[in-house]
Amino acid sequence: MKLDNRTAVDNKILEQVLREAARGLGVRTSGVGIVVSTSRYRTNGVAYMCNSFRSSRGWLNTDCGFFKVSLPLDLNPLRCAERFYSTARHEWAHVRDFQDQNGQGTRPFSKRVNGRRPKHDCRPEELRAYDYVDEADKRIRRNGVVIAELACAIQGVLSLRSRNRQGRER
Q1: Rounded Cα distance, 152 and 146, in Å
Q2: pLDDT tens for residues 67-108?
Q3: How far apart are CA 25 and CA 124, in angstroms?
Q4: DSSP letter at 45?
Q5: Which of 19, 77, 144, 170 places its Cα 20 to 30 Å from the Cα of 133?
Q6: Would strands 2-5 and 45-48 be described as parallel, antiparallel, or unpaired?
């Protein structure tokens, strides 16, 4: 896993959460590029099939996949950690799809119909990602300790930011 951490959260905690999110999906985590950034109140994720990506350290090679996911900094750190975990899990499912396609031929991906793409939840790649996550949830249980550690780290970042704001107001 090639992590490009653009947040104030410790790399070890993010790596643990991302490895836990990939567990049970059947995805190869080594060589996959991941960019984690912060967002306000939203969790976004986007996955790409590529051989290299640009990180803060320059260009890095990947193993069939790369995804970006944002870490929301909301007032409820536990909800933020759970959202980040579920979004990362979904993006790992897309990376698995890319890895499977590279080794076994082609799979159907959404195409434009009359100049427009289908709605997000109706695209074949999204339906496969939902199925992968559902199958993995049936096989393994979620590790709540890792999510709680991430929530504590988010709480630390939020308290540090509020102290910095109070210092500037004086």
Answers
A1: 10
A2: 889 888 877 889 888 889 999 999 999 888 888 876 555 666
A3: 18
A4: E
A5: 77
A6: unpaired
